[in-house]
């Protein structure tokens, strides 16, 4: 029997809740649908579904096989679409992973311009401060900040991200002069998803390094939450300048040690395949690269 047909019936049985309903959805009799499913289980040598008179439920093997089967059928559907429409067509879905704060504060104008230029493309954004695996997350590409782990990913540099220290104006008390010794004692708001060495490190004009290593008042994997906590006077935050800019401009935060150098983090696009990318993915990579080059000019 056709293996793809067997997989199609297996997926439909799970989605519709019964083998008979799966058969009806696919234009088959319940008996024929059952034969396809039994043939699949026989070929695999394991049971995929628990059957009862009232319902179906997945076995452990069935759960794993369902996830793999969906990926196979989605890949087949995409291959069929590309064969029909051509890889050069700027249409379809792009799954893009972005850091949450960066995606919220920096990317909307760039992505809006891309969507207006390519109305047949749908952007599916996945926001997460941690590095989701592109293959497991079924992402076409992702924007990454900071040091990348060793991997087989391809990269396209976009620029760099400047880091800074900020706190509420009242946190320093009556001291107008910012002293390293004073600032090092202040409570810190620590970003737990940081990926690069050199966090909480500043260098003076003579290249002497100082670690800001006060006690942690709060830890979070959400940098925006930590910035808001800093505006409430809870402690000092070490964050990308794009996350601090608004609060600095309206006076809710002051920048600490602005005359000292802090870490610069690399900003890049990462993707898994540079030879067989759909045209829509290449177009987005080129668009984002051009946008950041224009901002640096």
From TrEMBL:
Family of the protein in this entry: Belongs to the LysR transcriptional regulatory family.
One term of GO molecular function: DNA-binding transcription factor activity
Keyword entries, A-Z: DNA-binding, Transcription, Transcription regulation
GO biological process, any: DNA-templated transcription
CDD domains associated with the record: PBP2_CrgA_like
InterPro entries hit by this protein: LysR-type_TF_proteobact-type, LysR_HTH_N, LysR_subst-bd, WH-like_DNA-bd_sf, WH_DNA-bd_sf
Name of protein: HTH lysR-type domain-containing protein
Domain HTH lysR-type: 1-59
């Amino acid at each position: 029997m056709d293996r793809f047909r067997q997989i199609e019936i297996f997926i439909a049985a799970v989605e519709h809740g019964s083998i008979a309903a799966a058969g009806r959805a696919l234009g088959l009799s319940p008996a024929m649908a059952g034969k396809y499913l039994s043939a699949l289980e026989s070929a695999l040598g394991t049971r995929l579904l628990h059957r009862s008179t009232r319902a179906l439920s997945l076995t452990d093997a069935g759960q794993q096989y369902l996830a793999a089967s969906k990926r196979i059928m989605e890949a087949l559907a995409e291959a069929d679409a590309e064969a029909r429409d051509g890889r050069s067509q700027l249409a379809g879905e792009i799954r893009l992973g972005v850091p949450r704060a960066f995606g919220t504060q920096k990317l909307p104008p760039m992505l809006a311009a891309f969507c207006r230029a390519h109305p047949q493309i749908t952007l599916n954004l996945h926001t997460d401060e941690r590095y989701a695996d592109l293959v497991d997350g079924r992402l076409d590409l992702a924007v990454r900040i900071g040091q990348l782990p060793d991997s087989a990913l391809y990269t396209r540099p976009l620029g760099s991200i400047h880091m800074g220290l900020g706190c509420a104006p009242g946190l320093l008390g009556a001291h107008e002069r910012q002293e390293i010794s004073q600032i090092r004692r202040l409570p810190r708001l620590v970003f737990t998803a940081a990926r690069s060495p050199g966090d909480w490190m500043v260098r003076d004009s003579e290249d002497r390094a100082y670690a800001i290593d006060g006690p942690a008042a709060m830890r979070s994997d959400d940098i925006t939450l930590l910035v808001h906590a800093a505006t409430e006077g809870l402690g000092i935050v070490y964050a990308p300048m794009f996350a601090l800019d608004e609060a600095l401009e309206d006076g809710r935060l002051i920048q600490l040690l602005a005359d000292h150098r802090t870490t610069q983090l690399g900003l890049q696009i990462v993707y898994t395949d540079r030879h067989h990318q759909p045209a829509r993915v290449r177009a987005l990579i080129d668009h984002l690269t051009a946008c950041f080059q224009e901002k640096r000019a």
